[in-house]
Structure formats: structure tokens, C-alpha cells
Amino acid sequence: MIGYLTKKIFGSRNDRYLKTLLPTVARINALEKEMQALSDAEIPARFAGYREEVAAGREFESLLPEVFALTREASRRVLGMRHFDVQLMGGMILHQGKIAEMKTGEGKTLVATLPVVLNALSGKGVHVVTVNDYLARRDAAWMGQLYTFMGLTVGVIVHGLSDAERQEAYGADVTYGTNNEFGFDYLRDNMKFYKHQLVQRPLNFAIVDEVDSILIDEARTPLIISGPGEKSTTLYARVNSIIPRLTRDDHFTIDEKARTVVLTDEGVVHCEEILGVTNLFDPANITLQHHILQALRAHYLFTLDDHYIVKDGQVVIVDEFTGRLMPGRRFSDGLHQALEAKEGVKVEAENQTLASITFQNFFRMYKKLSGMTGTADTEAVEFQQIYGLEVVVAPPNKQMVRKDFPDVILKTQAEKFGAIVEEIKGLHAKGQPVLVGTTSIEKSEYISTLLKKKGVPHEVLNAKYHEKEAEIVAMAGQKGRVTIATNMAGRGTDIVLGEGVRELGGLHILGSERHESRRIDNQLRGRAGRQGDPGSSRFYLALDDTLMRLFGSERIAGIMEKLGLEDGQTIENPLISRSIENAQKRVEGHNFEIRKQLIDYDNVMNQQREVIYSLRREFMIAEDLQPTVEEFVDDLLSQVYEPLDNRKGQAESLEEARGMIRSKLDEIFAMERMAPGGKFMEKEEARAAILSVLEEHRSLAPDQYQEILRFFLLDALDRNWKDHLLQMDYLKEGIGLRGYAQRDPKQEYKREGFELFEDLIFRIRENTMKALTHLRIEAVKQEELKHEEQEDVKYVGGNEPADKKPDTVRRVDPKVGRNDPCPCGSGQKYKKCCGKLA
Description:
Number of helices: 32
Keywords: ATP-binding, Cell inner membrane, Cell membrane, Cytoplasm, Membrane, Metal-binding, Nucleotide-binding, Protein transport, Translocase, Translocation, Transport, Zinc
Domain SecA family profile: 3-572
Strand content: 5-15%
Strand order of the largest sheet: 3-4-2-5-13-1-14
Distance between the termini: 81 Å
Protein name: Protein translocase subunit SecA
Organism: Desulfomicrobium baculatum (strain DSM 4028 / VKM B-1378 / X) (Desulfovibrio baculatus)
Low-confidence stretches: 781-815
Number of strands: 23
CATH architecture of the largest domain: 3-Layer(aba) Sandwich
CATH superfamily of the largest domain: P-loop containing nucleotide triphosphate hydrolases
CATH class of the largest domain: Alpha Beta
Cofactor: Zn(2+)
Shape: globular
């Protein structure tokens, strides 16, 4: 009550914030005549002057009114578009590192130009992040005219570019691209060997378009770079063949809310009989049990043309929020292979993770982050808690006049689709355009089939026809047009009303069911009523819709029973609509908790990733790596000599400790060659001997010495980081079981993850020094080397060009047999590792 009264008297926080922007808007407007008086040549000259001032130390924040006024004038001349006052406010919201919620048709693409130009003054680069390649190209070309006119350079990052093209695009003042491309380039950069191969600059400022789609909907999808694993794929087909012999409820149960499958006791016994194993829960059969559960999930929780499609003999994921295809992405943990076995296509080998990051952690690395969308307010708490981003609802330029009609509720799916088709038919007959929103490809095609029977012409827009997306959506507002779309609904493309449509009531949005998230429903509604245009929306629901069935309270069913709803009868009841919205809120809360839990776990991995990638960048860029290697020597020697330092003074324990140390020194540092005959060395003697080996390397290959160190440091780091990622995956998979021992799984994950990380750091040091002290160098003539067969050197990303090898160095160890384990610690035979370069 007190909060309500405070809001009434003082206005909401949002209102108060917007009022603080008004004086700056007035200052920008006051500069308009001055900017209009400039010639075309004087505009870029004026901007260049601002750049010089910033380079000389002036804060570009203080130049906001001048830069915004200059950008508005440049836009008027080049694009024929003048920023409205509310767009100036939107630009300030973005510049201040907040999320601007602006209704559809308010010109978010144009709004972004204001903070982009202002922040480009720093010379550190500005990234504009879009949801697909089409929008990245379109916006870069469209707004690029304005930037080029002002003297800025523009780049665009899309799929299929070479590293040289990416370097050029990232080096521009303004870079457009998709969230996937920015994230994968970050990971790829942290797999490169030389600094000249890096494509990205430090992450400075990003404006994320459709920020809710990228930071909320995509938050649970990690970006993963992987390489082929070594496991056989035959088990997937074998397990898939037994699924028809298992009966739901008798042999397994399904929790559709949690999207999990559990075998019953009878199901376990039945599987053991079919597969011929005595105990499915034996540790030796844990993989088999996992395959059975994933196969059941593939058959009962993942539907063709809903969660995925089969295209060109491959299972391709369909994004559940946008309806777009996601080629190249694969479900993890064997689920994708289970789907391939289910659909009878080739089962691809499982991949091993080489590098990964979630969008949550990638975008939090930017020095400043902001975003814009038409629907963010319902997720304001999550944006604040996870990203520290405040959501500000910007006022519209023209008041929205769209009519949102109450939901229509029917008993069954068949009745609901029948009513939908009748409404579409009626609206089409009078010429009013209709955009039908569906939650899956299957339902969009079902409605299409029904409309064909009724003779209603229409267009279908789903993941199967996404190439024509922009064209189809742009035409959806023409007279008599019927467009059926999945949730993608052409985000980022304006639907302009055709001639005579305003008089008919504008575009009508027809939702075929409610989505789990109110925000997705609002996005669909937002396709109508742009810039003060007329429009309307209505959702049709059935009691057996997924949302109603899983999350609708018993109260809804009770109300329907009391109303005595008959077959085919429709009802519009605000009480039921409110109950449905409450169900959506519960689902949103549930999904938020899942994302929060994900980031709690991923934060552990992220801290480790930051340390490793920082260390890796240091190895790659440092001119002198000798101090790093000497630090490795000191740390390893401290651990090796620890038994001697901790001895209690007894002669037996002293001799035993010395024996352990001799053995460890020889294992890590090849000490036998430095102290033959088993002579014991004190720590300082050992240090001097190791450094003398390194000094010998330097004297034999003075010009290549730093590159030799760099190669072995990066090789050891990459090899062990890859193995560490696999270990962390295994740890995460089983950590939930700690709860049975009354332990907090998250705390256990942190503790055990830290122990694994400490071991990782030790193994990087150990493997580096093993390789360097077992190394033999022969100086060879450059001409000789040119005629040698150059073989690729493997690193984390697979086979990389031979320029990774120190180019006038051979590795030789005459004491090691060709079939012996390689002394560098790789785990491979000598002939396949260092021996092949000998």
C-alpha cells in the first residue's frame, strides 16, 4: 500500500529516471540549428575534432549533446530519418549501460546509432549484436551509410569469413555481428598460437539487439568448440532397438515439467533381461544406463518438426524460442546421437569439448554492456541479478492503439484449431491481414493444411522456409494477407500496413496457444500496432494445451466444469486469463531458477577459464618467456623437495626421501643425464643443472629459443586444459549425488573443481619442463630444412599449420626406442610424437 501511494505521489522509478534525461534532450534540440548550418564536408570534420579532443584526454561523456545532435543531423541528410526526442532518450539509456525497452516500430535500429557514434570516439571499438546474419548484414549496410558519412569505419562479422576478413571487421570503429560469431571468435582466439592470428580486440562496448532473446532465451545454451572423441557409436543403435519394447508407466515414468525420464524397478529388470546384463547399476554398466535414459528422452520428450528436423540426412536443432534452425549445433551428452539413431540417419561420433563459454559469462566480459528490445520488463529482475543491467521502459513516440482481446478458451485441440480457421477465414474475407503465431513447425503446417481445405491463400513462415523470412514478414500487413509463423515471427523486420488496411482495423495477431513465457506472447502481439497504427490480437487456448495441461491449476478446470462448457463452445473469461498468466509466471520463475543454478556452476568454470586464458595470452604475447619457465622450475622443485623439507631427522626417512626425490627429478627433468650414476643433488644444484640445459638450448638455437619455449608452454597448456574440461564435465554430471550425503552439491563442486584446477596447473608446469629437459637440439642449415617433410603438429584444435614448429630445430633423443612412451609426457609412442620430428 505504501509503495502504491509513493508511486502515485512521486511517480515510478522509471518515470523519475526518464525525467532526468529531459534537460539533456533540450540541450540536444538547442544545438539543432547549429548542426543544420554545417556543410556536408564540415560534419565529418566536426566529428574528427571531437575525436582529437577525446584523444587529448577529454571525457567523451561530456560531448554527448554535441555528438547526438551531430548524428541526428547526419542521419537526416543520409538516411532521411530524424531522431525523435524519445529516440534521443533511448540512445542515452543505451549509452549509460542499461536496457531500453522500446515498442515495435519505434526505430531501435536508428536509436542504436547515437550511442554507437558517441562510444566510437574512444577508438576501442563498438559491437552491435544481432540475432541472425541477415540482420547483421542489413543493419551494417543500412546504418553504415551514416557511419561512413561521419568518417567512421564499419565491419560485419557473419558466418564463413576468413581470419583476415575478421581481423579487418573487428578493427573497424563499429562492428555488426551475431551473438554466436562474437562468442565463437572469442573461443577461437583462445586456441590460436601466435598473436598475429588473433582477430578480436579487447571487449569494450556492446549493444545487444533483441537482448531478451540472447541473454535470457539463449542463456542456457553454451557455445562449444569440440573435436571428435574416441567412443564407438554402435551402442546408440543397439539401445535404440530396445525402446519399442519398453512401456510407459510400466517400465519408465516421464516428468514433462522437468523433462526427465526415470526407469521403474520393473523397467530396470526388463532392460537387464533384454541386454543380457546382471546389474544395470554396476559401475561397469553406467554408460549403458545413461544411453537407455537418453534414448527414452529422444523418443518421448523430443518431437520431430518441433524440437528438431531431419534435413539432408542430418538431425538439425530447431530453436525453441525463435523457431529458427541451428545448423552446426548439437545436443550434448549423447542426446543428439540418440535422436540420430531414432530417425535412422548416420550416428555421428561423440565430440569432446575443447573450449566452451555461456552467453551469460561471455557478455559479462564487456567493459560496458547495454541492450534493446520490445519485451524486457517481465524479466527485469533477472537482467539486474545476472548482468547488473537495469531495464528502462522508454515512452513511445505515438500512443499505442492496438486492441488486445481476451483469450478464447475451448475444450480440445481439434475444437480450438477449428475455431482458429473459421476466424482466419472471416477476417480474410473482409480483407484484414492476419499473422498467426504457433509454437512449433508441426502446428504451423497443420493450420496450413486446414486453411488449404477451406481455400484460404496463405504464406507459411517456419524454420523450413527461413530463407524467405524477411520478405514474408514485411508483406504480412498487406490487404487480405494471411501469414502463419512460428515464434520467430520475423523479429527485427517491420510489418508496414498496406493501402486500405488501417480502415479495416490494421494487422490482426492470432495466437494458437500461450507460450511458457509471457514475453514471447508479448513479442507476437507486438508485431501489430507499430507507431500508432491500428491493430488487434487474440489468443486461442484449449484445456489440453501443453501449458494448460502441465502448469494450469486445478482451479481452471474447476471453473470450466462449473460453467458447463459444451463441445465446440467458446468462452472468454478474464478470471481464466489471469489464472493462465499466473501459470506463466510460475514457469518463468522455474526457468529463472534453472538459469541461476547454471550460472552458479558456470561461474566456477568461468573463474578457471579466465585464469587459463589470461595465462595463455601471456605465453602468446610475452617477448621473454625465460622468467616464466624459471618460475615453473622453482615451483616444481619446491614440490619435489617437499619430502626432504618435512623429514623428521631419522636416517631411514632421510634416505627414503632422497630416493623419492631422485626418482621424481629424473621423471620430470631427465636428471639422469645431468647427474649420472644416481648422485643426489641438493635443490640449488638441481636448479642450476636444469637452467644449464635451458641455456644449452639457447646457445644452439638463439634466434628460435623464445619460440621453442612458447611452443612447449602452449602445447602443455592446451593439452591439459582439454583434459581438464572433460574432468569438470564428469564432475558436474555426478555432483548432484552429493546431496544424498547431506552435502551442498554447489559447494562440493567448487571444492572439488578447485582441487582439479590445482592439479591442472601442476600438470602444465610438469609437462612443459618434461618436454624442455628431454629435448635435444641440433642446429641445421635452413636449406636442409626446406627439403625435409614437414609434418603437422597437433594441438587442441586438431592439426594446425607446420609454422607452429620452431623452424630450425629438430628433437632427438637417441636413448628412447621408437615404441617407447614419448619422454615429453604426451602419452603417445615416441615414433608418433617427438620421434617423428627426429
